[in-house]
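To whoever is on call:

I kicked off a structure prediction for a single chain this morning and the downstream step that reads the tokens threw a length-mismatch warning. I double-checked the sequence; it's 185 residues and nothing unusual in it as far as I can see. Pasting both halves so you can look.
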Amino acid sequence: MIKKRYADRLNWGRIKQRHYVQEQVENEVFQGQVTLLQLIEVVSPLDVLYGDETIRIADDGYVWVQQFPKDAHHAVTSMFDASGQLVQTYVDICLRTGIENGRVYWDDLFLDLIALPSGQVVLVDADELEAARKQDHVSHTEYTLAWTEAKRLQEQMKDRTFPLLAHAEVMKEQFEQQLKQGTPR
């Protein structure tokens, strides 16, 4: 079954204190919803392992910038550590994104891409998509859509032509400036 996920992560018990803002953005690079989630205090840090490398993706002071392009089949979460350094960008392949009761969401199609600052791009959760297809939780059309989108974005990320990687930095700075001025939209 395709799971609906929400950008505000209200159901994530790891976060003890947060600050969250979302905004409709339209500029030369992007059209859609952008959110900023500040992890002010977490219960415990979250580390992930990619091969031999362990990367911390959530801890006190971390900031997640999430981009939900209009009419696209992906949602992009760029994770920054407490010093503002990018630690990874996580791309969820999805059926759709939208707003429900004021909350930004995406319908997750299981398959994900991870772009590391080194330039390495990792495809993950293919096994979850395969299992969902075998159990008829996704249709053949949704399955094909997920693989087509993942391969297209993977190539763009490897070629460094995927514009939302750099756009996350721009949006992070813009949101943080608004927060400092006390004028988040």
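Update from on-call: the warning came from a stale cache, not from the record. Cleared it. Sanity check on the structure: The radius of gyration is 16 Å.
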